[in-house]
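README: folding subset

This subset contains proteins for which both the sequence and a predicted structure token string are available. Records are stored as plain text. Below is the entry for NAD(P)-dependent oxidoreductase (278 residues), shown exactly as it appears on disk.
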Amino acid sequence: MKKIVLTGAAGRLGSYLREPLSKMCDTLLSTDIVDDIGTLYEGETFVQADLAQMDEIKPLLEGADMVVHFGAIVDEAPFEQLWGPNFVGSYNIWEAGYRHGVRRIVYASSIHAVGMYPRREFIGTDVAHRPDGFYGLAKCFTEDLGRMYWEKRGLESVHLRILSAAQVNNPRALGTWLSYDDLIQLVTRAIDTPTVGFTVAYGVSNNDRCPVDNANASFLGYRPKDNAEEFAEKVLAEAPEADPTDPAQMCHGGPFASVDLGSSGLAQMNVVDDRKKS
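--- output ---
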């Protein structure tokens, strides 16, 4: 490919995607709202831009083959805060992509689009949306946006419902973990699969306790290799007593399912910022 655009390049997941994406194309255009992302990889350029501003986003997509859209506020927050980057930002990416003839958009969706389903239900990619907050609602909006742009305008997209791409330090993560190596494989398969139409796939590793079913997305060829079970003994020994009345423990969305609308879900979690340094 000649050009890939990566949004959210300064984020934790974006930091692990930049190098492999730079090797898949002549030019990787990385973008984020911050003013610097560190040393650039060979073939990578960086442009500061606000997802909510079409006049800043549209020029970046000119000549792009694909967009890997990971830019957003990545937490539950008041609707007004999420509106620009998470709702309008998605529209701007899809509309700019359509205007410039982009072939495909790979989107960082989330388990929070279906976060209120009970964990005892082994859910597939075809279940109805059931968001656990405004953040999850933005993911539902963008999945529906992607389906509409495919069916009405022929713009392909793959929506990766990431469960928890973070260090395994709690019982829920024994099922939801997505390792960084598996993240890279998943994004790579979403890019190099010849045709995808509109596709939803769960972003999760090969965990023994995986709570979701990726069978409908098996054609992507994503075959995760890592398994969180290697952390199980330590995590379970240190975990507090389980509470079956706690939505954070009983719903797919974890802590996001238990906090009030607009209140941070990440504040209830111990997510380690181990982003890759370039």
